[in-house]
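Predicting holo structure, LXAUTJHC bound.
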Amino acid sequence: MEPTTFILFGATGDLAKRKIYPALYNLFIDQKLPESFSLIGLGRREWSDETFQANVEQSLRDFSRRESADTSKIKQFVEAFRYSVLDIGRKEDYQKLLQLVEEREQELNIPQNRLFYLSVGPEFFVPIADNIQSSGLGSTQGWKRLVIEKPFGHDLQSARELNEKLSKAFTEDEVYRIDHYLGKPMVQGLETLRATNPVLQALLKNRYIANVQITANETVGVEERAGYYDHVGALRDMFQNHLLQLLMMTAIQLPHGSNIDQMRLKKKQVIEALEPVRKQDVGLNIIRGQYQAGSIKGAQVPAYTSEPGIAADSTNDTFIAAKLQIDDYFWKGVPFYIRTGKRMMEKSTRIVVEFKDPIAQLGSVKDSSLQPNLLVIEMSPNESITLQLNMNDPHHKGEIKPVNIELHSSQNDLPEAYENLIHDAMNGDATYFAHWDEVELSWEWVQPILEAFEENLIPLYPYAAGSYGPAEVDALLAKDGYHWWFDSKPEQNSETQNNSTTYSMATL
Ligand SMILES: NC(=O)C1=CN([C@@H]2O[C@H](COP(=O)(O)OP(=O)(O)OC[C@H]3O[C@@H](n4cnc5c(N)ncnc54)[C@H](OP(=O)(O)O)[C@@H]3O)[C@@H](O)[C@H]2O)C=CC1
Ligand SMILES: O=C1O[C@H](COP(=O)(O)O)[C@@H](O)[C@H](O)[C@H]1O
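Done. Tokens:
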């Protein structure tokens, strides 16, 4: 990997401490950092290099997944770290920064390869990009890259304005928009799973698939992010970015070994083919909800509107479910049901592909003991791929029961999303970053829903914390003859949950 200077805005913040330093440390341990590497942390706090390094050390002890929080390794790692006080609006601070960057480049023999990572609020993206350009920090003889966190805009118009302004200082090829779902190993493996398994490739199309369900449920509530979340809600926080990215990654059809341009083109084609929702029709296909008080794993939790920092009359959405249709050759007629919510019964991120029942299709009598074949891709809390088939039950002759063939990774130290993404950004590989075209098209698709929410055109359904969301979300599928898989409601999935046999296979 090429020698790199990593310039981190927001180095004193929460994301840096919880995700960025542990990810960099893991890359260091795995020898995936450039040999010549300099990191310069920035913030308004008056920290010395030593205070900064001590804070980074502490964050590794608190958040690194590596059990070996090995003191000598950590010391070696933080040697590359320096700190500079910088107020985003103060031009003179960028001159001081430029001087430090150049000093370190000379000291470590680093060509001018500069990665600017903006781990700060989105209101700072444009001023920082402008100051990078006007200070000379962006005039490098090597490469420059801008890594930005979400949210990328608040709606279609603000996203376009932001993009336009950023493009004055960085070209599209230099902008790396983080969507951490794209960094999850299972998401990165989806395309290979399909492209290298002709069996799956042959089946993943509308001829064989009844529906696709994408779930990203969380047990956490608004946490300490009331100020941010109450202006954003589940639609902007999760749906517009992570869930639409999951949909694109599920639906793209690519030959094995495709390059980044083909991948981006195909993703774009998927989202372009999404049937648009008209504002007046939002109520037909979209359910929004807000959590009430309830209990999760035995602990009582307050209602959203009783959370610290949330207005008692807030109408913000903490849950959203949607039915979407992709109008293309492969997916026409296959509903995609997508949901995400806070304070749900359990943490689960998964994609379920439900196959059509060929017996029912042939018009024979439906055998109610037969469960559909399912392909289940679990991303959280564990990573696994399961195929549900039907087999004879040897103990009860003549009876058929579902059998799950489960593949899970035996590696418990899989890289985390941020590790993958930071490594890719330093390597100049933007495959798993969101291209502007995808971001713009996602906002375009979501815009009528945002407007319907703002104009209160659809109900805001309450749901108890610790449930699976408002009851109406079941009806969204029931009217098409389906139900959500793997919600542990006894009346729904009891057969599958209780009677199935699982054969587990660990991969190397
Ligand atoms: N935290 C998380 O889990 C996630 C965060 N994000 C995104 O990451 C970004 C950062 O979030 P997070 O770390 O949580 O935020 P924090 O509020 O914890 O940190 C903000 C950082 O910005 C710096 N900062 C704020 N104002 C200025 C200023 N005027 N000049 C210089 N530095 C400034 C702060 O430094 P100082 O106080 O020293 O000035 C601090 O380091 C946001 O865009 C957020 O949406 C995305 C996904 C998850
Ligand atoms: O980006 C975000 O994602 C997290 C959920 O991420 P996960 O990897 O734990 O599924 C969510 O809690 C947060 O609100 C959102 O901003």
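The first helix runs from residue 14 to 29.
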